[in-house]
Amino acid sequence: MIRKTALAFLLCAPLAAPALAQSASPASPAPVEKPASPELAACKSTAMIAITAREPEIKDIVIDEDGLTIATSETKVGDTPITRIIMGEAYLRTDRSDKPRRFLCLLGEKGKVLLTFFTQR
Fold first, then answer.
1. Which are the contacts of 113, defined by CB distance < 8 A and separation ≥ 6?
2. Where would I find the beta strands (DSSP E) of 18-109?
3. What are the pLDDT digits (tens) for 33-49?
4. How far apart are CA 90 and CA 97, in angstroms?
5. What DSSP state is assigned to residue 21?
6. pLDDT tens, residue by residue, 91-115
7. CA nearest 46: which of 121, 119, 105?
8. What is the helix (H) or strand (E) element at residue 4, kind and residue range?
9. Is the alpha carbon torsion for 3, 12, 28, 63 positive or negative?
């Protein structure tokens, strides 16, 4: 089993090297993080407004898109329909060291953000 894994790695490594070499350039500026979906972008922008109102030192939210759970929903809270639920980990960039926080975003009709929530550290 270990031999097969090592062999697969050795065969695939030369194929990945040109892509890595093209994307890592010290002269180029850091890429701007752009969320993959409009729903996630809406959650992030709404969360930034709410968080910076309480904690102005926070300058950015980095959401781990690879670990997100995005679920469609047909439920209601009171009379308000919930159409999508996004959960995952997020990092709030500050001058201090940052730890991952759990992130929750509830969206309603027409992609309207109803709630964004971060766990405490």
1. 42, 43, 46, 105, 106, 107
2. 60-63, 69-77, 80-93, 101-107
3. 555 789 999 999 999 99
4. 14
5. H
6. 887 655 678 889 999 999 999 999 9
7. 105
8. helix 2-23
9. negative
C-alpha distances (whole Å) from 7 to each of 12, 48, 52 are 9, 45, 49
Half-sphere exposure of 114 (CA within 13 A, CB side): 17
The stretch 71-78 carries a mean pLDDT of: 92
Q: Tokens 């270990």 — which residue?
A: 2
Q: Residue holding tokens 């030369």?
A: 14
Tokens 């980095």 correspond to what residue?
A: 62
Mean local confidence (pLDDT), 22-30: 40
CA 96 to chain centre: 20
